Amino acid sequence: MLINQRRPKKGCALLLFIVLWHYFFSSSFVLRLDPKIFWPTIFAIAFVILLMKREVLQGTELTLFKFLYVGFLVCFLSADAWTSIINDVYFFVYLGVAAMIGRNITTTKVMKTTLGFCVVHLICIYIQVFVPNAYKSIILPLLPSYSHADILYQMTYNASFYGFTVQTSMAAMYMTIGAICAAIFAKHSKRSITKILYIVLVALFLTGVLFTTRRGSLLALCLVLAYIYFDTSGGKFSKIVLLLLGIAFLLSVGVDWIPGMQGLLDKFDRLSGNMMNGRQTIWGNALSNFWNYPLFGYGVGNSSLAGGGALIDNAYLAVLVERGLIGSVIWFIPIIWTFIKTYSKKKHASDMDNIAQDFSLYIQLLFVIMSMMENYFGQALAMFIYYVAVLCEDFTRMRGNYEID
């Protein structure tokens, strides 16, 4: 039986803060515990809480666990079964922790805490851009020493900024998550001043993505924000006119004045306007090598073997070569089913103030788009925020709570 609660207990709220701390600060060896110890420990706590409350798996949670279990069995037939099994276990761990969060904490609380951590990353990127000496003396020492040289080189010569991460792709992901949360709060805010503040925050996150020079992340975020914009109440015609006027204004004054835009334009110049950045060669190698193990794949976590030693920045292809035809079908069935179900419920919903439903749909949409350019659906840690969004909506619906801000 699910507990019908509106406010999370202090213990659960603290646990949420600790979990999201380790998720968003995963790049720092100083500020977090060993993930191989921390996440299994939290999973064990989640399991104990489940038993103590005498709750059972149900709904989307049960479906995801069922397909994960079947996919786990398929790992035994992959080319590297042992590595595949070890890496696949982490999906169970992150799903279990996400289920604990969705079951015991309101979506609004989850989103506000998530947004808070994203703002911290936003501040770190702005410090790196505008106060580089402070960044070098305060923030950089908290990151692994092996990354310092590359971070300093990129921020000096290529105008690519990492913030509080060791990869620009991670920084961009945090910016996009923060922008989506802020956009949802702006959509549901009743007070004009609060709505304006959230819209300003969305703009700041957009410039944060620009500072990372991640073109795919920028495109994906713009598409999701456009969907959110047209998903709000009001006439579609007036929205289209307003959007066109905004685009015309930017073109008339020039886009190079936007913070971070010049670095992105310079990256286009260096790569002759090509957004693929060598990905097509890696994808071609992966497709050719896929036929070595077509049914059960190379094993979870071994996509680089098929990519000729390089990471496959496409989740759909990475999952295919890692899990094979059979394993990838098993993997994507619940993802596709969940997306269709969420979209259908959203389309026919009478309650337009359901924050949980928006959070789930927009994060899923982000993953669907970004998985064409990054391995979002194929990485356990990246999937954690996906699981959180999906299960928050599912448990909110089962509790009968339609949360509004």
UniProtKB/TrEMBL annotation:
Q: Which residues cross the membrane?
A: 12-31, 37-52, 64-83, 89-106, 113-135, 161-185, 197-228, 240-261, 320-340, 361-389
Q: Which domain of life does the protein's organism represent?
A: Bacteria
> Cellular component GO terms, alphabetically?
membrane
Q: In what way does this protein cross or attach to the membrane?
A: Multi-pass membrane protein
Tell me the keywords, alphabetical order. Membrane, Transmembrane, Transmembrane helix
**Protein location:** Membrane
Mainly resides where? Answer: membrane
Q: What is this protein called?
A: O-antigen ligase-related domain-containing protein
